[in-house]
Write a structure and sequence with these properties.
Layout (H helix, E strand, L loop, with lengths): L3 H9 L5 E2 L2 E2 L3 E4 L5 E4 L4 E6 L3 E5 L4 E4 L3 H19 L4 H21 L1 H7 L1
Antiparallel strand pairs: 1-2, 3-4, 5-6, 6-7
């Protein structure tokens, strides 16, 4: 079945290239039935946990995936960072340093707030 979303991707996206089974310009998620799903993260409008993760696309289409909202956000950030690294190679060291800084800050904040850390586990 072809949806408007698929037509939109076909009409506006560059040719799809596979990279180790994953589409280069999409993030790979998992449907509730376990089948893989490639999503153009630029089309995600909302990600809600209710209790399953429901993605609402800008087209109005809703997708339910196994990954939690935090993982969808992380995959989106990693995808966009990869795009920036490819488009602006000289910025890669700054992006890596920023990621390391952010990770360090999260660890420090978790150490300062042990109650908050325990509630996330």
């Amino acid at each position: 079945m072809v949806t408007f979303h698929m037509l939109l991707l076909t009409a506006t996206s560059p040719p799809m290239r596979h990279l180790g089974g994953v589409l280069k310009h999409m993030i790979e998620l998992t449907r509730l039935n376990g089948s893989p799903l490639a999503v153009n993260c630029d089309l995600i409008k909302y990600a809600e946990a209710s209790p399953d993760t429901v993605l609402t696309l800008i087209t109005g289409e809703k997708l339910i995936v196994l990954e939690p909202c935090s993982q969808v956000s992380q995959l989106t950030l990693e995808f966009r960072a990869a795009v920036l690294r490819q488009a602006w190679p000289e910025a890669a060291p700054a992006l890596i340093a920023r990621s390391a800084h952010d990770a360090d800050q999260q660890l420090r904040n978790a150490d300062k707030n042990p109650d908050r850390k325990a509630s996330h586990e």
